[in-house]
Amino acid sequence: MTGTLATTGLRKAFGGVTALDGATVNFQPGKVNALIGPNGSGKTTYFNCVTGMIKPDSGTVTYAGRDITGKAPHSIARHGLGRTFQLCRTFPRMTALENVLAAVPPGGLLGGLRGAKRRSEIERAMGWLTRLGIEHLAGNEARDMSWGQQKLLELAGVLMSEPDTVLLDEPAGGVNPALLDRIGLLVRELNAEGRTFVIVEHNMDLVMSISDHIVVFDRGRPIAEGPPSVIRTDEKVLGAYLGV
Amino acid sequence: MPNVSRILKIGAIVLLAVAVLAFPGVAPNPYILSAGVLVLNYAVLSTSWNFVGGFTGYISLGHGALAGLGAYGTGLLVAKGGLPPFLALFLSAAIVAALAVPIGFAALRVRGASFVIVSISLVLILLLVFQSWASVTGGSRGLVVPRPFDLSRPEHHRVFYYLFAALLAAALVAWWLIDRSRFGLGLKSIREDEDKAEALGTATFTYKLIVFVVSAAFTALAGGMYALWFGDLDPVFQFSILTGSYLVLMALLGGVRQLFGPVAGAIIVGVALEYFKVEYGDTPLHLVATGLLLALVVLFMPDGILPAVGDLLKRFDRSQRSSIREVSAAELREQRLKEQAGTETGGKGTGDDGTGRTAMTEAGGTTR
Amino acid sequence: MPSGALLFQSVILGLLLGGLYALLASGLTLYFGIMRVVMIAHSAFLILAAYLAWYLHESVGLDPLLSMIGTVPLFFAAGVGLQRALLTRLRPATLTMMSVLLTFAIALLIEGLLGYAFTGTQRRINLGYSSAGLELFGARIAVVKLIAFGLAAVALTTLYLLLKRTKFGWALRATIQHRDAARLLGIDTDRVAGFGFGIGLATAAIGGTALSLDTTIYPSLHWHWIGPLMAIIVVGGLGSVPGAAIAAMILGLAQSLLQIPLGTTWAQTVFYVALFATLAFRPQGFFGGRLAQRF
């Protein structure tokens, strides 16, 4: 069962610029959560703090009741928090299959010496590639794939690492409408299977159609949260977006 | 299922092994044989270097220093400690591996630039220390290492030739094992995108540290073996920045993603170095030649010559596949049969890592 | 316990040496800031400039200081050319590693060609004022060292003003801090990067001239400089020019003082000790350097 991702008073400044200003958020477990806000409101910094890519100046991150503040990213990933990157990142000179297999935990020092291409794992990896509709590219190197295909590949890798909670950083960025629909559908499906999602996204159509719960950021802290119907009419949100 | 390319590959390896083992028999004189020992020494060193350079993409210019440490460790343990030569060799390698932990800790915690800086600094500081600390190391007077066997000169070369060949085989097997393991896949993902690897749950720092220590151990073994063979150590040569650059050049020229890349590079560069020495003596021009070659490889052939040759071969034999991709290709076919997904050819296995560019682009082109 | 005069002299010499380190390290920092390139050939260019100063002095009797009229623009052009023609050819994904190899190769080339042209013999300029000294509270300071420091100080001040006060400096700093954002602001970042490299190499030309005044030079001398310089930019925090300058002064002073009890060779290890300690305990460096955490 998936745990609750929560942060208290998360703060991070770069030089003189405050990117996060005491962000206290509780995401709803088992739901599709969205994190929205104007450019520069601290969403990606927030993701990076949560997943350990950067260390917050103060505040705590807890997942499933455990304090994971300042832990190494790989350790946070092993706690069950998987993430994608804003500008989709894959391993360019590895095949799609290897990209997905790279997410398998090695299982200790001796486990690491086992072959990387065990039958059971290849089947599991191919399963994810198939589910995302890119199994025909399994033998292709990632750098030879299109942007959209790489986005799907990145997601397949993250899913292979068996996260309970998946953080997606702009899944709709640069993808065509058809693929966008597919990603939306996929998120709902994967959510129905019990995975929690937290999505940073600018595409409001996607956000409104797939999320159960929306958190709105402005200047490094949440200013509103609630279901799409509430957020759509919230005046503070409109103010933040219109710059009032 | 009969697999022609696999048989070809194994045949090539057997042929290579036979050629290497037969060399002492056909070497016309002890000098040529000693040159063979030197080339094998380079082959072991650059293969050892490739544990770090090939898997993680971290370029070390300081592996010469690790070899020097292994050499001096062995030499001192034999000459001053009175240990049996081969016990000293392994003990020295163990000590260097232990030293590699704090060095790696400082060098690998952050990204590439620091690693390079530490690796070069390692050579410079060890040169200082070993030259100045003359009471222990013999300083610039050098350190004489007693020979382990009471043999004539040609016999001595012959024995060490086979010892180096055995060490090379061990290093190659170890590299091959890591290459096909999960650990190896993790290392390669670090090479491709370290942040991404970390985010997927790979303990990148630990991975890098482990492989650095393994690399240091093999490098030290090669250095120690050199000490026992050559019998005379001088800090200027043992801790020369040039050694490290030769190793990089060899591995890069041969191809860092290939098991036999560094060996191929060592043969080419090693033979060229010896030839240069014989033809032109000790002039600063070998620096120019090394620098020029290194620059050309970096600029125009960063993947090395083995992939280039592989590409060439593939034009003649489209069906050739590496064992790695075979799995995915076979798996793929199975999958496809299950779903009866039609006749499209994407994902058809292509050659060795990084070599099947053209074929792959074609395959990618048909898919969407 | 060393006498007060000796101590005082060491402090002065350390500060003078630190000034030269600071100038050279700032060049190294510029390259790193602009392109994440650890420019191994920086000190080889330094020695090249010293050789050019020596050669012009030997052959036509030109004062080394005047050689800068030629070497500074020449090195500036070489820096621009190096960046535009060679470094931009490398794949961005492997730039840091491959550029190290490329600049390393250039260092070997320069060393080899210097050795070929001038042999490995040690060279030294003998100037009319070489032996002149200044007595100061019992400490004796060679005039040439003061000139070298003066050169470094003037060059460093100029560099500082260039970075802080000019439009080009603003563009350069913007490029260092956030290349994409700088491009959005309409800065031609490629051009700026090229000029940045030119300025970096120009510091090597000035430093080399300063070095030639009171140092015996030989082709492989550059290895004795690149180690300390790399240590300085790490201790100072990769990418931070003021950090590099402070670290240079402190380490130069430390080296000079440690020479009293340890001798010249062992005193040099202070750089490497500082390098390892910094990376092990505070990899981001001690004086700023936002970039350092990630490289």
Give an overview in words.
- The complex is a heterotrimer of chains A (244), B (368) and C (295).
- Chain A has 244 residues and is α/β, with parallel strands linked by helices.
- In chain A, 36% of the residues lie in helices and 24% in strands.
- The longest helix of chain A is centred in the last third of the chain and has 16 residues, at 177-192.
- Chain B is an all-alpha fold and 368 residues long.
- Chain B is 76% helix and 1% strand.
- Chain B has helices spanning 4-26, 30-56, 63-79, 85-108, 112-132, 134-137, 153-179, 182-192, 194-199, 204-230, 235-238, 241-254, 261-280, 285-300, 305-316, 323-339, 357-365, and strands at 143-144, 232-233.
- Mean pLDDT of chain B is 84; it is low at 319-332 and 339-368.
- The model of chain C is unreliable at 289-295 (pLDDT under 50).
- With 295 residues, chain C is mostly helical.
- Classes of the chains: A alpha/beta (244), B mainly alpha (368), C mainly alpha (295).
- Chains B and C meet through α4, α5, α12 and α14 of B and α4, α9 and α11 of C.
Instruction: Find the structural class of chain C using helix and strand composition.
Output: mainly alpha
Number of helices of chain C: 11
For this entry, what is the oligomeric state of its chains? heterotrimer
Shape of chain A: globular
N-to-C SSE string of chain A, H for helix and E for strand: EEEHEEHEHHHHEHEHEEHH
Distance between the termini of chain C: 42 Å
Give the helix/strand class of chain A.
alpha/beta
**Helix content estimate of chain A:** 25-40%
What do the pLDDT scores of chain C average to? 87
Number of DSSP helical runs of chain A: 10
**Strands of chain A, count:** 10
First and last CA, distance of chain A: 42 Å
The low-pLDDT segments of chain C are 289-295
Overall pLDDT level of chain A: 89
Unreliable residue stretches of chain A? none
* Rg for CA atoms of chain A: 18 Å
